Queue: 2 jobs
Job 1
Amino acid sequence: MFGAVQLGAAAACVVVLVPMGMAGWHLSRNKMLFFSGALFISLAICVHLTPYFPSIPDFVTSVSSVVVFDHRTSCINLVNDISWQVNPKNASSRLHINATHDLDLYDKRWGWSDSRKFKACDFQKLSRPDASDLLNGSWVMVAGDSQARLFTLSLLTLVLGSGSQRMDSVRADLFKRHSDYSILVDEIGMKLDFVWAPYVVNLTNLMTDYKTQKSCPDVMVMGAGLWDMLHFNNASHYEFALRMLKTNVVSLLPLSTELAMNEPVVGSVPIKSSSHLFWLGMPVLINGMLNTEEKREKMSDAMWHAYDRALGDSKLLRQTGGPLLLLDSQSLTWNCGPHCTSDGMHYDGAIYEAAVQIMLNTLLIESHQRL
């Protein structure tokens, strides 16, 4: 691209030569002599300035790279914008709507808009073969509370197939109370680790462990907040913990290109420049549906919004200059609505399926791949 010096030189030439040429044209009695002189001066200037200007191919390439970058950025900003259609499955379901929160009574469909800007991004629901190809040979880590566990279940359901016999044992092992879980999908060489980490400090310690080991996953999805809200109930404490997490995540990056003005991060460990980092946001809490009085008292709408502001103020997310891309559970659960949850906190599998597809589409964009 043109630098400041190049633009200044070009502007100077225009400012000096154009008035000079116009005056010379009117004052010169020998037009041929004037043209000859003007041509000689122009060629001399061009020869001297040529080394300071990019070649045409380089210029075209640089412009193309900016266009591609802008396209990727705009698509990543749009990938969380999903619309829902939630309707009773049949006439008999309508009779039970006010008497039960049975999620099976509703048909839930989701998708991206068909407007031009969304079509340009080519978002799509990846099939099992597509997801397997994308994650082939990858090490995936999901860490957090029950929301992260449900996200893990949805990802494995996609990769292994919902009807596979293996999924029965996966569900049994994955949902052992407050425990970690690991699986190797031999068919595609994908390793997946679920780490029970209900508090942000657990995530920070996990990042410290990866830094010590000088090895970290290709894809990291993490999220915490609900346990902090219930047991600490202090948004300022939560924000401080998130800032500490951000510091530890940034220290994993080999170069802090966007986070530290193109300077290496102090104490950074050259692990993987290709690691993809995601934050699984908190879902909308429907206070009246929460199943204990303690939850209804401590996890109020006001406290939820205070925690949401703390996340923004911590600068952890990419949209605020941080390292993690948001998987926007707030938007997903809000748009799906109360018919998508039975306890006001844990949602229907369709929510986590959508979050998985958002992550996969983001991976496609960031890795410059197309299916």
Note: The longest helix spans residues 4-27.
Job 2
Amino acid sequence: MNDAGGAVDEVARALNVADALGKADKLDDIALGLKELDMEHYDDEDEGVEVFSSRIGDLYYPSNDLDPYIKDKNDDDSEELEDMLINPTDSIIVCASTEDDLSLLEVHILEDVGTSEMNMYVHHDIIIPTFSLSTAWLDCLQGREKGNFLAVGSMEPSIEIWDLDVIDVVQPCMVLGGILEKKKKGKKKSIKYKDDSHTDSVLGLAWNKALRNVLASASADKRVKIWDVATGKCESTMEHQSDKVLAVAWHHHEREILLSGSFDHTVVLRDGRMPSHPGYKWSITADVESLAWDPHTYPYFVVSLEDGTIKCFDVRTAKSESTSDLSSTFTLHAHDKVVTSVSYNVSAPNLLATGSMDKMVKL
């Protein structure tokens, strides 16, 4: 009787608690819930159950539009992601700039070209350690068959190659040449350079589009070097000019032919197929600033000069001896100050652009 009385008391107490909560039938709900969980047989589950389901749709959706858990599919994050995407129809422009002692590589995107919606914006920028003097784009590197890379020359004797496809990159992916160590004994300083490095500022760079692993560099050390970016090594060094070499340019179609221009008032053509040949030399009237091959008239090249002129030469007039004091095919009195850059339009024959210290670009 005592046991029965105790059970009745427990039931009465439980009913009183449930009634106090205003849910007298809660015990039935709890009992039903426990029955559905079947806790008595919890440890008897099949051992083969998958902890991480492999069924597509449980955790993975091919796109955000198909994911029912993403309520707002047009949020700010989606817009930012769209801004970061580079479409096949976009044009990419890389600009080297310096402001307040901060040097940058700015990657600009030009979108919707030829439409009323045409727009240009900075996609991302890269902080570089020194003031840029020369740049050259290239599409391959050691261990990378395809990509977007920029070689940068500066007041340092090294050439840094930066990966433009990486956001927030903090260091170059390759360095060609440079200083190995510096020592100072009293007032004397000694510098040890890496093997085959330039020993002064790198003033000009040119990538060979036909031989994609080849990069040419021009330096204030009076040398021109040919680098293999697939190995990171210097393949050859040329010393055919007597002053700072400011510009180099590969021929568009004859992939072994290279021009170099110097402060010694000469332009030299060298053919990599004849390394022992001293090349062909044109004497000019002022310091060379830049060089460009005509992509439509293969034998012609132009040189921009410190005196504000542009001169065009025909390589077919070069003689077999190493020096050719020949007149130019034409001369443009383009600017009143130094003509720092010259560039042909590869799509429009005979269209040439010049940039000058007079703060103008002319066509």
Note: Confidence is low (pLDDT under 50) at residues 48-59.
